[in-house]
Amino acid sequence: MRIAIVGAGAMGAMVAKELLVAAPDTPLVLIDSDAGRLLRLEETLSTASVMTHQRDAVDVVALAGALASVDLVVNAAQY
């Protein structure tokens, strides 16, 4: 199952870390508008099963493209 996390801030990072502890081989797709935040989280997780996409969650078309191949979405984006 491929899981996407929209929002790579504190909550998104915590969810990603917990998911990888519980199921280390689960492919994760991290989505955030901040490229630096994505890079830091990707380096922290240091696993090949993580893919990142720099997208703005309010851009529905771009977000839909990034979510096209996932089975489950976790919304950790700020409002």
Note down, in words, how this protein is organized:
With 79 residues, the chain is α/β, with parallel strands linked by helices. The protein is 41% helix and 23% strand. The protein has a four-stranded parallel beta sheet with strand order 3-2-1-4, with helices on both faces. Helix 1 (10-22) links the parallel strand 1 (3-6) and strand 2. The mean pLDDT is 94.
What value does the Rg take, in angstroms? 11 Å
List the helices and strands in order.
EHEHEHE
Count of strand segments: 4
Main sheet properties: 4 strands, parallel
Q: What general outline do the C-alpha atoms trace?
A: globular
End-to-end distance: 27 Å
Proportion of strand residues: 15-25%
Q: If helices are DSSP runs of H or I spanning 4 or more residues, what is the number of helices?
A: 3
- How is the largest sheet built, in terms of strand order? 3-2-1-4
Helix percentage: 40-55%
Low-confidence stretches are none
**Rounded average pLDDT:** 94
Structural class: alpha/beta
Tag the structure with descriptive keywords.
79 residues, alpha/beta, 41% helix, globular
